């Protein structure tokens, strides 16, 4: 059987082809699945997609009409998929429920330290042989307070690193993670976490309850010299409100690996085009802001695990087996995703 894979990065292609070798042929495309590219899938029973795919109602209907029966998404997050429509169309949908949480947690800390120690500015200066220290003053992390919003697998890994720095640990989630509690984390109300934390990192999935969890009110509560890191989902942060706060001179630094309007931008080369997103254009001009292109998950270890899980999801579909990766059809009395400590984390991918 030939499988069609959308949104495959150049680094991923040989890994995907090797993983499926001897089992199935795989056709890798670098274009992302959307309403314009969906007709390409006609005749393919199984397709694989990335997290930036558009799997809304219209695209799903096009896929079903073309003969697609199974969608294997190469990510943990699935907020881009209309699960109700997929179920109505009898499409099987599976995701990757687990991959290395350390890839994202370590990258979140990379962003935090980069904005704290002004690494981008320093590296840019030294390329011009400017070795002044003016404007490069950072802060020790030891003894300061970190607030972790979402303490699932990735949040726990982030917390372990914070513990290694010797920081005071505050957490917020719908359920406490015993592993974080053992590290000395105190679970508090979100408003207290925002008000007391020197560094805030987001590790919750994007759900209606978490959309713009960092909005105008939350930003107003935060310390003026706080650091904000988002390596989870762009929709967790109200970017327009964040830009307003940054224009007022607030925050030591902001590190964003995700952006709420990243679809159609991230994973693509737009360097020779005019990008008409005024909010993003303003965001990247601030000297205390780092924006990266949804790469936190992108390590050899995590990508290998994502691909292995995708291969297994295809094998399970063909063998009519069910696993914890299957989103549709849903199990009886499925209550939908939560974001407590027992959940699989939303990040992935990508």
UniProtKB/TrEMBL annotation:
Domain D-isomer specific 2-hydroxyacid dehydrogenase NAD-binding intervals:
110-296
State which Enzyme Commission number(s) the record gives. Answer: 1.1.1.28
Supply the alphabetized keyword list. NAD, Oxidoreductase
Locate the region Disordered. Answer: 325-350
Boundaries of every D-isomer specific 2-hydroxyacid dehydrogenase catalytic domain copy: 8-327
The GO molecular function terms of this record are: D-lactate dehydrogenase (NAD+) activity
Q: Which domain of life is it from?
A: Bacteria
Regions annotated as coiled coil: none
Q: Which Gene3D superfamilies match?
A: NAD(P)-binding Rossmann-like Domain (3.40.50.720)
Query: InterPro entries under this entry?
Result: D-isomer_2_OHA_DH_cat_dom (IPR006139), D-isomer_DH_CS (IPR029753), D-isomer_DH_CS1 (IPR029752), D-isomer_DH_NAD-bd (IPR006140), D-LDH-like (IPR058205), NAD(P)-bd_dom_sf (IPR036291)
Stated family: Belongs to the D-isomer specific 2-hydroxyacid dehydrogenase family.
Protein name (Swiss-Prot/TrEMBL): 2-hydroxyacid dehydrogenase
**Organism this protein belongs to:** Streptomyces yanii
């Amino acid at each position: 059987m030939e499988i069609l894979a959308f949104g495959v990065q150049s680094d991923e292609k040989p890994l995907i082809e090797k993983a499926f070798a001897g089992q199935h042929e795989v056709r890798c495309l670098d274009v992302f699945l959307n309403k314009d590219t969906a007709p390409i899938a006609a005749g393919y029973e199984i397709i694989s997609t990335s997290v930036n795919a558009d799997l809304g109602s219209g695209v799903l209907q096009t896929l079903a009409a073309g003969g697609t029966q199974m969608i294997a998404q190469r990510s943990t997050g699935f907020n881009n998929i209309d699960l109700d429509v997929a179920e109505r169309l009898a499409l099987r949908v599976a995701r990757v429920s687990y991959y290395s949480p350390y890839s994202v947690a370590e990258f979140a800390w990379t962003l935090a330290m980069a904005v704290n120690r002004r690494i981008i500015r320093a590296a840019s200066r030294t390329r011009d042989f400017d070795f002044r220290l003016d404007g490069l003053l950072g802060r020790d992390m030891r003894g300061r307070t970190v607030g972790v919003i979402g303490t699932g697998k990735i949040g726990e890994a982030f917390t372990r690193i914070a513990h290694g720095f010797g920081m005071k640990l505050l957490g917020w989630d719908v359920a406490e993670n015993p592993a974080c509690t053992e590290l000395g984390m105190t679970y508090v109300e979100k408003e207290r976490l925002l008000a007391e934390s020197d560094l805030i990192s987001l590790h919750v999935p994007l759900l209606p309850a978490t959309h713009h969890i960092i909005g105008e009110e939350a930003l107003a509560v935060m310390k003026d010299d706080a650091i904000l890191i988002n390596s989870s989902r762009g929709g967790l942060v109200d970017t327009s409100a964040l830009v307003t706060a940054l224009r007022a001179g607030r925050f030591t630094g902001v590190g964003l690996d995700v952006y709420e309007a990243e679809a159609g931008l991230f994973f693509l080369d737009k360097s020779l085009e005019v990008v008409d997103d005024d909010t993003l254009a303003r965001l990247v001009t601030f000297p205390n802001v780092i924006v990266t292109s949804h790469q936190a998950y992108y390590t050899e270890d995590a990508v290998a695990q994502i691909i292995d899980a995708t291969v297994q999801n295809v094998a399970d579909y063909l063998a009519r087996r069910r696993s914890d990766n299957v989103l549709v059809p849903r199990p009886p009395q499925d209550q939908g995703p939560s974001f407590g400590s027992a959940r699989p984390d939303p990040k992935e991918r990508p």
